[in-house]
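User: Can you write out an input/output pair for a complex, sequences first and structure second?

Assistant: Here is one pair. Inputs:
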Amino acid sequence: MTVVLSLKNKKVAVRMKAVSAAETGENDRRGRKASKETRRQQLIEATIDSLAKRGYAETTLADVADGAGLSRGIVNFHFESKEKLLIATLQFMADEYAAHWNAALEKAGEATSSKVWALVAADFDRKICTKRKLAAWCAFWGEAKSRPTYQALCGARDVKYQDLIVALCAQLKAEASYSYDAETIALALSAMMEGLWFRLMMGDGLTREKAHAAAVEYLVTVFPGHMTHQGPK
Amino acid sequence: MTVVLSLKNKKVAVRMKAVSAAETGENDRRGRKASKETRRQQLIEATIDSLAKRGYAETTLADVADGAGLSRGIVNFHFESKEKLLIATLQFMADEYAAHWNAALEKAGEATSSKVWALVAADFDRKICTKRKLAAWCAFWGEAKSRPTYQALCGARDVKYQDLIVALCAQLKAEASYSYDAETIALALSAMMEGLWFRLMMGDGLTREKAHAAAVEYLVTVFPGHMTHQGPK
DNA sequence: ATATATTGAATGAATATTCAGCAAGTATGT
DNA sequence: ACATACTTGCTGAATATTCATTCAATATAT
């Protein structure tokens, strides 16, 4: 009903094209099928892609939107700002990571050694340990020091995780009277896993399997009474 | 009577004093005395500051110029572009790091164990291992995967370093017939040191000393025939 | 019909880059 | 000594670019 200026005729023509192009193919992404939550998730995935491919500094909303096959303004509609999209993305990865190691802990046996083994294995699981996700983590790490919000979510292994590792190491020490300080060993172990992640991300031909093997070697060496190369005793 | 130039708020005042400053002892930075190389170095230091303080994404040429107490156009005059300034900065840090561990290796004794000990100690030396520099490294890490130029310089421990560590581990193994695979141990060791760096940078109250102690604990455990907590045997 | 999701052009803010000009030094001529 | 032209480091306003954000128009679903 609203009357349009002369210039707008062009615009309309352009839009018509875009629409008909959209109708032809993909129902899944185009069309209005997607729920709000689905669309948010789709945008988060596109953000991880962009972070992995281009790094934090080069990640633009345009790239995210393109990656999701949607239009330019879409992010500001579903998230309020770029900043909020990035925080939601980081939050998602942190939640996923935490859920993953918690699940691994559930499935592990009662024995302390089984728990430690399971936690280490979880870190090198295909689901978590992909180049794509490691690269996205690393993109955030680079910015974390100067942004409290990121820092809180980025201590990839958060306080709860770190406390757990320390407690488990202390338990192992008590069981077999190893001589080392539990906190020191726990620090060394988790630092090593982070370093292995980092190397995987940088991708010098290091594989997940080799990285896991290095971590296992460490376990066997430090906890000889509890671990073998094949698994916990 | 000396001119103080630490406060950026007084930019105008400082600029005015350029003339009189030349007369005083301040001619190192102000005035026209600074050689091209000196000025480049000054700008590189300001860049490290900015990276450490604001992260890669938030580092602007304006901030670098302000940090150096110079004018806006200065970076494009001495370096050609922002990109080239950043590469020069990374190159500087990589050179400094390499020079540092090479020097440590020189000073170390002939024994293989002394060399390994020295390399580990070098990584946690005050000169290299400051929060400022670790933060700058981390800023580059985040971007490295998507930029070949950075990636080449960022494998903080480069090919030469990695080969050296592997060779030393193999040597120790031969001397005392440890059972592990030298490459695996070398990987674990260097990954752990990188992880410790990372944690120091994130700064959860971890100190250089504690980090070094964790690395030493590892050496003692893995090479019991060669190492003690106090040093190589 | 109304509400909701989506589009994409327009806007504006941030910031890298350019460049004409200034000033401090230096060389040459008188 | 002094003057003149020339070089070099530097400045900062102007320009160009990139990109997040906004919003009116439009499409789709209920």
